Amino acid sequence: MIQLLAQGCILIAAGWLAFVSIVCLLAPERAQAALATMGSNAAIQFGEHIPRAIAGIAFVLRASESKAPDLFWIGGWFIVISSVIIMLAPREWHHAYARWWAERIPLWFYRIAALPTLSGAAAIAYAAL
Description:
- The chain is mainly alpha-helical.
- It is 87% helix and 0% strand.
- It is built from six helices and no strands.
- It has helices spanning 2-26, 28-37, 42-62, 69-88, 91-104, 107-128.
- Helix 1 crosses helix 3 (42-62) and helix 2 (28-37) runs antiparallel to helix 5.
- The two termini are 14 Å apart.
């Protein structure tokens, strides 16, 4: 049962990543604006990192049954630990960091980054099955 739940969480996370890649490809201005808002308030801060940490836990739990156990184990722990650190750090730091990147990443780069991101989402979904 826990494996099915973990797999479902990973597939949802991969679907979200695919959605983000499509936004980056078709509406880079919206992707840039969304990046600039990260950490701007508590709802966005925790709304981003609690689901991210849950996905990381799902990666760790699914690692042994996945097609890439070492990557799922290491990647899952990285996601969990980095999410916890970001949630514990002052929210203003996260927001300033997100704004800094949003101001510097050119719009054309969002479109280019969309393709490997979509491929990564597909690879994650495949490896979780």
